[in-house]
Amino acid sequence: MHTLTLQPLIALIAGILILFVPRLLNYIVALYLIIIGILGLVRI
To answer: pTM for the full model?
Structure first.
């Protein structure tokens, strides 16, 4: 999967999780940033 197609998918999943469990916002944002950072470094 290409990074450009993976980012919107991760964002969509994170957005849905935040809607259903708002208290997870900090963890979801942190995980999103870590995943995007790793993908950027690896350039998948």
So the answer is: 0.64
